[in-house]
Amino acid sequence: MTLAQPSHDDTIVEHVPTPLLDVVGLSKSFPVRRGVLRRVVANVRAVDGVDLKIAPGETLGLVGESGSGKSTTGRLVLRLIEPDRGIVRLAGTDITALDRNALRAARADMQMIFQDPLASLDPSATILDSVAEPLSVHLHMSGAARTERVLDLLEQVGLTSRHLYRLPAELSGGQRQRVSIARALALNPKVLVLDEPVSALDVSTQAQVVNLLSDLQREHGMSYLFIAHDLAVVRRVSQHIAVMYLGRIVESGPAEVIYTNPRHPYTQALLSATPIPNPVLQRERTRIILRGEVPSPADPPPGCHFHTRCPYVMEVCRVVNPPRTETPDGSSVVCHLHVSSASSSAAVENTARD
Amino acid sequence: MTPGSDPSPATRLMDSRQPVILAVEHLSVAVDSPDGPLGLIDDVSFDIRQGETLGLVGESGSGKTVTSLAVIGLLPRNVRTVGGAVRVGDTDLVGMPERAMRRVRGRDIAMVFQEPLSSLNPAFTIGNQIAEMVRAHEPVSRRGARARAVEMLDLAGIPQPQKRFHDYPHTFSGGMRQRAMIAMALTCHPKLLIADEPTTALDVTIQAQILELLRSLQREFGTAMLFVTHDLGVVADICDRVCVMYAGQVVEQSNVETLFAQPCHPYTDGLLRSVPQGASSTSRLATIPGVVPPADQMPAGCRFAPRCDFAVAACSAAAPQLESSASGGLARCCRQHELHLRGAQ
Amino acid sequence: MTAISLTRSHRVRAVRLRRIARQFCSHRLALVALIFLVGLALVAVLADVLAPFDPRHQDYDVLNKGPSVHHWLGTDSLGRDMLSRLIHGARVSLLSSVGAIALTLVIAVPLAIWSGYAGGLVDMVVMRITDALQVIPPLVLALAIVGVLGPSVRNIVIALSIIFAPSFIRLVRGEVLAVREATYIEASRSIGSSPFYIVRRRVLHNIASPLIVQTSVTLGFALLAEAGLSFIGLGVQPPNPSWGNMLSTSYASIFTAPAQIYIPGSAIALTVFAFNLVGDGLRDVLGVSSASISRHSL
Hints:
By secondary structure, chain A is of the alpha/beta class. Chain A has helices at about 70-75, 100-105, 125-140, 145-155, 175-185, 205-220, 230-235, 255-260, 265-275, 280-285, 315-320, 345-354; strands spanning about 20-35, 40-55, 60-65, 85-90, 95, 110-115, 190-195, 225-230, 240-245, 250-255, 325, 330-335.
């Protein structure tokens, strides 16, 4: 597998058999407007050339901190925000090329779970009403049949008929998130994008919901794009992981490889910063404490975005965008430290592209 | 910049000859409700020695934040301390008039909150707020206060402190704001710093920086710390001793290594096992079934019994008391000596 | 099992409404005000039956008389029964104010929802029109409209509807803007629901509360405005009574027979007060913050 050309197509790292979700070159910038005339003064490059592949029935964990663009990526994949560039293929269909009506119909196959369980539900609508929405909109179900199906979905997520007529404010955080999951399952989607689905929940509730998500995935064979900042949770649920920093994927690969042998300095720092709930181990670890703050996405550093905080920064990092390199254990990393000679020409072309 | 890795602090040896800075004794707090006072925390006791960090751990509804607010006297208007004492030195802070409490706050006890943006006054510069704090407690000139403020900002790791003295809170990033809050809190070298989930809203790499900052400042000033959190990883990182709270009560108290290695209360055990440890993706997380009971529906007897794997009839019959545990701490469980809990091992 | 579930949903909704009603009733002042308004409405509807005399009938034997057995509230300077004029005036006043607000709700509110949800060009056009309408002082604008169209109840309703539209448009648009950014709206979009579905099923019931309170309070203002217009002769024309023109005909006798001013004046004041009290009660019960209402009032 060579990197003789600027990578876009087949040089994605994982040897993933016919991916269910295939994302190539996804990019999105948000203009910053100032002044009375609303002139564009800067562009926030929230997502900058992201490639992802998810196999059927598998989970890709997308990890990053604030400003990494991971939440925006999730929304771009579903076209809740329109991408500037890039192609998203779901089971062969090019989602990005669909017109508005076809897109709405295609949404039955791809659903989203949001971070804030309370905000994701209409506060004035009963649980029945919220969960029934996809059934009404896509399948035009109504009446008794629809209520039966809603009950069936609620039971799958561990709720009962007692919850049918409650309002979201009357449920706990964990229950609300279950309702969102039931709603997302209604049309048997092929892929679920989960945007920090357990971050707003207590630790013991997190465990319940994570288990539920795993069970449902096994049962229905869905693929998950699991977006999170908590590496420990992501490792639990994902077969593959991609790490994002300032709009770009800096490292990706099988979950175990990323955890046991992280190559990118940012991934190493991220793993080091995540505290282990074991005081003896935690206090004996070598820590990598990054200096400085995350640069503003409106004004990303030239060359490698991470160079301003990288403990291993070299001259080339400040100028040239690093190429993607594959490693023997199946991961890929975007870093000058790991560049092999064959890919240095690709590096030059990558910089020219910018 | 050379490949950096800070030397990790060795587990602090507990010097029990260090004086006790804060002693909370049988503290109970209730909120006014249409049906009368509702208990929020019940019979909470712990003490903190100089230089030590006590972690107050619990999930939402555990009462940990209420406890920390009660200590510093910042309970909301309809919430009151209804029993117990909070002793700093020889003085009991419970029932102290507000004017006297204002002298205590900042000088003896300071607090850092979770959301610095809502705790810092947006209409004043950071430097102004810190200097005001100094002048409220010490007879220092304006210039002197300013110099102190700049010095604290520098100690807190804020680059270009003289320049940033004149900046407003909204121009700081989340991590910087938290540093400014910590600088402000420690300006008058209080004996006790209460940190209420100071890193929960921060990215994990920034959290690591802030925890390191807290540790280094604590070493420098010898400040004791009451660290409120729900994150067991952070507890393992920074706390010397831990108090686990559930439904308004302390259910276990122990030093940090023992808590994780040999928990004595089923709730602690359940918490430890439900934290994702990094095992493979095929094994399920252990869970604690059920939810925390709301304040007005507290079960009689043991409050954790309805969710406990080890509950027997005696558990719901009588409310258990805090007793010495096998690990040398305290636990509120009538079966603690029969159970052999192993936590996450 | 599902048959039971279906009836349960209606029962649950009824329980919620009952709870709101009960809370409202605990605001005694608001409850009294509501009863008063309902009573007034009944009086207005049954005016022909309830009024003892024809309000236009002039009896020269009883000019400017005080209360008596035949004329409970006395007579005016042309011998007309005050009580009957008051009753018929109620009909006119209520009709104008309710009609004006109803017209606003039917036309301005859907426009505002469209403007707020769709944004873009539609929003810009609607907001500029609203701005233009608000530039002119409202009563002057009403005068102009009625002046051009001619004085009549229908034209008053049109004029009032136009001058109160901007505050409703701003309120509704503001609420829609806030709701539009909510995560549950994004969730509906991710489900693939059409904008019509989203507005109908997810937006409307979440903007209802402030709208209800605003309506109740503005009814009071509308009544006041109608009285003002009738007072200066641009409303209902004499001899047909309205509370406003009763004030203007009684003005001449202000020193000799002040009751003739007090009676319609008190009626106006009490009714406006009642509308405001009901509005306050609704605001408390529905949990609407006063900020979102007062910001948009005239």
